């Protein structure tokens, strides 16, 4: 993984701030969602490059504030899901920190199963799987 991180650092174009932010109600924000398998906090390989690019952007823009929010599906107890959401958020935090983001920029939160995108009334398991995620939200201060 370090070899991959090093190659991204040396080849990543960081002149992307204008295209990364979208206008929100009163702040400009950028969000990246990383989805996980059930009961897992292993980052799927398909997200590594995007997380690395996002992390390099954060590291090179110290004026940004970052919230890393861990979420889970509704299977299991609230306590279990808060802990799983925290583990998911922590693994993303470690990647971002390794690539140079200042810990003062970052806030880590676990919501567990408390704020799902989709509720358990939805029958489509693919839609429910979208609750198993970490949202990385950057905003300008």
TrEMBL record:
<dbReference type="GO" id="GO:0009279">
    <property type="term" value="C:cell outer membrane"/>
</dbReference>
<dbReference type="InterPro" id="IPR006665">
    <property type="entry name" value="OmpA-like"/>
</dbReference>
<dbReference type="InterPro" id="IPR036737">
    <property type="entry name" value="OmpA-like_sf"/>
</dbReference>
<keyword id="KW-0472">Membrane</keyword>
<dbReference type="Pfam" id="PF00691">
    <property type="entry name" value="OmpA"/>
</dbReference>
<dbReference type="InterPro" id="IPR006664">
    <property type="entry name" value="OMP_bac"/>
</dbReference>
<feature type="domain" description="OmpA-like">
    <location>
        <begin position="23"/>
        <end position="141"/>
    </location>
</feature>
<keyword id="KW-0449">Lipoprotein</keyword>
<keyword id="KW-0998">Cell outer membrane</keyword>
<protein>
    <submittedName>
        <fullName>Peptidoglycan-associated lipoprotein</fullName>
    </submittedName>
</protein>
<dbReference type="InterPro" id="IPR050330">
    <property type="entry name" value="Bact_OuterMem_StrucFunc"/>
</dbReference>
């Amino acid at each position: 993984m370090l070899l991959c991180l090093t190659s991204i650092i040396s080849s990543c174009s960081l002149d992307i701030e204008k295209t990364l932010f979208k206008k929100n109600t009163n702040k400009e924000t950028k969000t990246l969602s990383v989805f996980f398998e059930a009961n897992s906090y292993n980052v799927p390989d398909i997200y590594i490059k995007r997380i690395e690019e996002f992390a390099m952007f954060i590291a090179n823009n110290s004026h940004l504030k970052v919230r890393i929010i861990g979420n889970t599906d509704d299977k299991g107890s609230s306590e279990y899901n808060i802990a799983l959401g925290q583990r998911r958020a922590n693994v993303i935090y470690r990647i971002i920190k390794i690539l140079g983001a200042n810990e003062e920029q970052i806030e880590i939160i676990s919501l567990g199963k408390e704020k799902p995108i989709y509720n358990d009334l939805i029958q489509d398991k693919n839609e429910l799987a979208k609750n198993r995620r970490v949202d990385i939200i950057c905003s300008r201060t």
